[in-house]
Amino acid sequence: MRRNVNRNVSNAGKMHPDKNKDPEAGDNFVKINEAYETLGDTEKRAQYDNFGTTSGQAQQQHAQRRDFFGGGFDGFSFHFGGRQTTSSVQKYRMTLGSYENHILPESDRKPYLIYAYADFCFQCMQMEVMWERIVADLQELGLGMGTVHAQLDPGLTRKLKISTVPSILAVVSGRVTWYDEGAVSVQKLRDFVRSVFPSDLVTPITYMESAEAFLSGWRDNHVRMLFFATRERPTQRLLAAAFAHRHRVTAGYVNMQLRESEALRLRYRVPHGKESLLMFNEETKDPVAYVTMYKLSRSALDEVINANQFLILPRLSSQGMFNQLCPYDSMSTHKRLCVVLLTKNTRDHDVHRASFRQFAGRHSNENDRVTYTYIYEEPQKRFVDAITRGKGITNESGNALKVAILWRNDRRRVQYDWLPDGWAGHEQAENGQRLVKKLDLMLRSRNYLPYTAELPNELTDEHMRPLFSRILLRLSDWRTAVWDKITSVDMTTLFTFATTIAFVLLVGYISATSAYNEGDKRRTATNKAPPQQTNQRSKGVRTIMLLVNGASRDVLLQHFARIVHRHSNNDAYIFAFMDVEHHLGWFRDVLRETANFPQNLDKISAQNCAGTVLAINGPRRYYTVYYPRRWRHQHSKRSVMTQMLGFVDTDSSDESEAFDDCCVQPDLVLRHFDAWMDRLYEGSLKRYRVERWPVPTS
Length: 698
Description:
698 residues, alpha+beta, Glutaredoxin, 5 domains, five-stranded mixed sheet, elongated, J_dom_sf
């Protein structure tokens, strides 16, 4: 297919029916266009690769197959067997490419109403009658329209999130709005079209005071228009025109049925019973343009608005405004000049702008190659710095503002020159003479201008919504998209998905609870281990048991728990504590099974044993011991076993005082316990074996 297209590219122009009288020229031209469209559309190209046809070819073949059912049903469009007659449904049918490349950008100037349909659809047959009637209204309003065949255009169907047919939706400024009023009627569709326009698009005007406040708002760089009619609400023709020109014009509406608006009607000599449009610029006393008719058509409204869409001295407030007022032209023989007064948004420069505006009003019609504008330095600082090179907007004297004369010979680059001595606020005559001479010389010259600057990519849009409003709008779009996605999913699928999520959460909760309970069993602070449990563990598990007494229990357990917390996930250890005051006899028996003490073990006290830690392996009958006094007094002169254990009472006041300090400060008692645990992991501690574990007694 690609080879066929490349071979016929040079013949495409020759195949046009207007240039070629061959009867087959029209068919060949259509085939070439179909080939180009297929190569430019990913889905159509894939469809051609898989099936050898495109959606357009498939539709033609589909129509040929349906000719069998024609005959007496030619006047109907059933979408399931009758011959398809040419109607607005086929005329305005869209593809994904046309939607993305044309309709989405154009929806910023005019709303699009879209009708989604399919074959074998009885409701579509009923809807099509009303669609034909609403199409006539849309054409009169100058709005856009389109249709989507949900079966033949699956990509566009997914893009618009169409889940059922028939469906009606509107695209306004790239946002999709669905018709959800239930039963469809022509009047409901008209109301739906009205509802897609922004609610603040047209300002209602009733009193003279409100009109004066409305007209004096031209400092936002928008022309004002007043529409007079004897209707309660603005006509949809006015809404459509106001929406298309909202970036340049602000619209107001006067209902002449209200008695309060009579003074306003008389002030501007508006006839009763007719529709009138008045355009205002900076001069608010009298309109700059006036048109009245019994019914102002959309084309008449556009004609008047387009002719008066700029103020006498407009401001470069956005990139779009800059492109319209100062279009680029690379031909030096008829270069277009843009005269820009550089100002700040302060009252001190009002007098400069006022005198420059008066000059522009007198000379703006003398040469259509010259446009007079001004700019605010604060929001457009990048633009101003590019042409002033950071030297500011005032002349060296400081009494006059700089005036730049621009020639855009490229989209990004501009050549320019300066008005000598700038523009002083109170010297309009002298300023004007210098500017006229300068412009006349530049227009007659074919030379390039002396200075060149590269402009920023975009001028700051001074009419952009506030940041908070844009965030809310984006959140609203996301909410709508999520809700549309949820509602478009089949209920069975949605229920299955929700059930799966609930099951996963339930399993996770049960697993977390079980892990917590298992860890809780190993938690030191809450496990009191009777001695008989130590020999009931499996062979690979050791019980790390802290000996406490009543006086030291709470403080020792808290410190002990903090130390062993990092070891609590190790299944080879179980952490516990034992009240040595209740089980002191068992502890003595363990020591007797370990070695023959020369001392009397009956003198062992619970106070001296507090803080001792035993690492017991019950089935293998051995244990390892941590005793804080042994770690603090490495050079004691006792016997080896007594030096290691030190359980016997002593009359040493120093030792008693040292232990008392440990009881007061438990971190001293267990200071070296963390290092002892590391050695226990390494297996470098001495193990003391017992012949048998004593029977516990309280």
